[in-house]
Amino acid sequence: MHIHRVRVALILAVVTAWSDAVQAAPAQPTIGTKEGRMYPDFLLPDLDGGFGRLSDYRGKKNLLTHFASW
Amino acid sequence: MWQKVLKPHVAAGELVAIGVVQEQHPDRAKLYRQWRESDRPIYVDALNLLSVKVVPVPVAIDQAGIVRHERITPSAVVADFVLRAYPSTRVDGAMNRAKEPSLAALTKEVAQAGDARSWRSLGDASFLCGGAEAIDQAAGAYERAVALDPDDGGAQFRLGVAFRRRHESAARRHGDAQASVEQWGRVLMIDPNQYVWRRRIEQYGPRLDKPYNFYFWVEKAREEILARGERPVPQPVEPTGSEVAPPARRTADGSSSAIPDPAPRIASIATPRGLSRSNRSSPRRAWSRDGACAFAPLFA
Known about the structure:
Mean pLDDT of chain B: 83
Strand content of chain A: 15-25%
Largest sheet of chain A: 2 strands, antiparallel
Strand order of the largest sheet of chain A: 1-2
Number of domains of chain A: 1
CATH architecture of the domain at 103-192 in chain B: Alpha Horseshoe
Number of strands of chain A: 3
Strand content of chain B: 5-15%
Distance between the termini of chain B: 52 Å
Largest sheet of chain B: 2 strands, parallel
Mean pLDDT of chain A: 81
CATH class of the domain at 103-192 in chain B: Mainly Alpha
Structural class of chain B: mainly alpha
Oligomer: heterodimer
Strand order of the largest sheet of chain B: 1-2
Order of helices and strands of chain B: HEHEEEHHHHHHHH
Low-confidence stretches of chain A: none
Radius of gyration of chain B: 21 Å
CATH topology of the domain at 103-192 in chain B: Serine Threonine Protein Phosphatase 5, Tetratricopeptide repeat
Number of helices of chain B: 10
Distance between the termini of chain A: 81 Å
CATH superfamily of the domain at 103-192 in chain B: Tetratricopeptide repeat domain
Structural class of chain A: alpha+beta
Shape of chain A: elongated
Order of helices and strands of chain A: HEEE
Shape of chain B: globular
C-alpha cells in the first residue's frame, strides 16, 4: 500500500512538472517577412571576405535595408 | 535623410543598421560603401537568395528578431520603431539560425536525391565559395536544377548570374555573356514583374531596354574619393557597354529617360560621418575558402 502511494505521488510529480514546463515554454514565433513574424535568418558574404548572419545582431533593434548599387 | 535620422541612435547603440545589396559585382558595392563613407555591415546577395522583389526595402526588426514594420519610412522610424518598447520574446537560440552549407553533404545529397532543390543548393554553396573552379561547379549545378525544374525562376536567375560571373573570370567560356542574357530572359517569362530580375537583364541586355545609366555614379564616386585623398576600391570588372551607356529609347520630346524608377533606387544607409571603426559590429564567419569549400570536381 505504501509503495503504491509512493508510485502515485511520483507519477503526479512528473506529470505536474511536465505540465508546468509546457505552460512555461513560450510559443516560438513563426518565421516570415510579415509583421509579427521572425525575420528569416541568412548567411551571406560581406564586403570584406567574410560571412555574416542576421541572427548575429539579435539583442539590438535592426534596420535591415535591401538596396541596390545600380 | 536616413543618415541624418539614424545617426544619433546608431551612435548610442540603440540600433544596428544592416544592408543587403543586390549587386552582381561585390567590388562595386564596396566602392559605393567607400564613397558614402559607410561603416555599416553590408552583405552581398548577388544570387538574390533572399528572393527580394524590389528595392529599397527598409525592414524594422526588434531585438528578438521580430518584424515590426515591413517597410518603414525615415519620418516614422524613430517614433514608431527606435523609441518604441517591444515585449521581450524568448527565442530558442538554435531556432531560425542559418546553417553553414557543407559542400560534402550537398554533393552526397545530389547523388542520393538528385532533385532540383538539392542541385540548386549545391549551386548556391559552390557560387558562394568563389574561385574559377567553383563557378564552373555552380553553373553546372544550376543547369541540372533548371533541367529538372524549368519553372524555378530562382534557379534560372542564379544560372544567369553564374554565367555572367564566369564570363568575367579566367574560366570564361565562349558564349557565357550571351547565355546569361538569354537565361535572364527566360526568368522574365516566369515572372515579368520581378523587379530585381528585370534590372539584371537590363544591365547586360540590349541597350534599348535600359531605363537609365545604371552605373553613372562610379566615376563621380572615384572623383570624390580621390579628392578626399583616398584610393578608390579597385574594380576588377569595370562597368562597360550597356552598363554605363545612356538608354537608346527616347521620350516623345526627344530626351532620354534619365530619371530612374522607382526613385530613389539606392537606399541611404551610409554610416554617419565620424562614427569610429570601433563601433563596427560586423561579425565574421569562417565559412569560406579553405574549409567547407574544399570539394572534388563534379563536372570534370
